Amino acid sequence: MREYAPKPLLLVLGQWGSLFAGPIFLLMLLLAVFDRGTFTVDGDVVSGPEFLRRAGWIFATVGGLLLAIGIGLWRERSWVRPLMVAYWLAFALFAFVSPGGDGADVALSVVTGVAVAGVAAWYVYGKPNVRAYFDARDPDAGRRVSSEEER
Questions:
Q1: Radius of gyration of the chain (CA)
Q2: What is the number of domains present in the chain?
């Protein structure tokens, strides 16, 4: 069944993009710990420790999510689907908690984050070829279908 459901191109691009970007976010955190590099928050140049205090947790969350998504897609795990949706919902959350930004910027970020998360949810759960790809790799998919048919 796996051979009839190849990995969709958008998932391949997301896999490699995530495997590239996630470690970069985490590397920036490591550089900030040792105060190496130039860091800005709201257009102000800040020290590495100040960057960590004000925005480090955002970088850690984004980097961790991206790395987990990349690994999940690479290893063909079904648990990666909710992570991909959560990644886009994080934009809506970060708009509220990020330092600075006026009301219009926050509103635009929230609307964009929720809209893109909705598209991502449709893509990974609703698009037939993507659903078939994940179902072909889920060992419990056959048991769930047969138990639903019995009802």
A1: 19
A2: 1
Instruction: Decide if 143 is inside a domain.
Output: no
Query: Do the domain assignments include residue 149?
Result: no
Q: What pTM was computed for the model?
A: 0.83
Residue 114 located in a structural domain? yes
State the CB neighbour count (10 A cutoff) for residue 111: 12
pLDDT tens digits, residue range 112-149? 889 999 999 999 999 999 999 999 988 775 555 545 55
Please report the DSSP string for the chain in residue order: -GGGSPPPHHHHHHHHHHHHHHHHHHHHHHHHHTT-S-EEETTEEE-HHHHIIIIIHHHHHHHHHHHHHHHHHHTT-TTHHHHHHHHHHHHHHHHHHSS---HHHHHHHHHHHHHHHHHHHIIIIISHHHHHHHHHH-TTHHHHHHHHHH-
